[in-house]
Amino acid sequence: MPFYDYIYNTMDKSSDTLHEKSIESKEEAVDVVHLTHLTSLQSIYHMRPGFAEFASKPYASKWYMRIMWPLSWLSMVLTWTYGSWFTAERNVMKKLRIQSWAIPRYNFHYGLNWEKEAINNLIVKAICEADKKGAKVVSLGLLNQAQSLNGSGELYLQKYPKLGLKLVDGTSLAAAVVANSIPQGTDQVVLSGNISKVACAVAAALCKKNIKVIITNKQDYHFLQPKIPEDAADNLLLSKTGIAKVWIIGEGADATEQLRAPKGTRFIPYSQFPPRMARKDGCTYSTTPAMSVPKTLQNVHSCENWLPRRVMSAWRVAGIVHALEGWDEHECGDMVLDMDKVWSAALLHGFRPVAEA
Question: Is the N end or the C end of the chain the one with fewer CB atoms within 10 Å?
Fold first, then answer.
């Protein structure tokens, strides 16, 4: 027995080494990595390495958390000086080992021009480490895929064209979630906010479904025109009125813009971050693009930012589906996968629209 082996020094020390190596390899092995980052100063408490009580609930700024600002400020300074990502969550789905890694930067860092190089270096370091660990897919979450930062991930492919893993920005699934959130019978929608890659994909998809997409900004209208298939181009309209009762909104759709919508409007975000809910006169707001996860996705003990428990952002789900399907292509830069194919695959693996949760 091991106890007597220990007393009489007859233990096979190589077995200890083998055991330690096997544990280490199991801990390091990963198939899918989702790269996220910190958002507000209090967001670190809502991650699993923070407080379990906070992490198990959707993120919301609480009055009592304001008294913790000295600790929040200190954690911000420490993470700013920290030179690497950290593991925020580990999950398992079927045979996939899934991890969420957080870049130690906050939202405001991504708006600082002098921080862009440092942030890109942190992301590159994480991607290369994931590749080294044998990951099949890395999905870029939140501002880690910002067009102004890295061209929706295209920068990393140019820098490392021989990556063994696939980079996914999740545009196709995020757009599919939005497009499939439009109530049946809707014949026109207003699209308002900064025109992102997801917004372009949503507009094109709705126009192809013969739904009129109304743009209230002339510059945005001209930007979107070449993105719409020729046989559906007549469904993209420029109008200042915006009388439709379904509005698809992104960042930039401020309170003034939302007040132009008629009473009872349904606002559906296409942005990574939830919009400010400026209307309370019978208007409703959907969650940011997300899906509820199947029971086969295990170890989901924390909420992803502001989303409910067992609900994940479409960008995060996209990476998991990409790996489950074994797709051998990237989705970053200008590349957008077939929305119907991605949507069907997500449903096939048990992911569901949040409304069905």
Answer: N
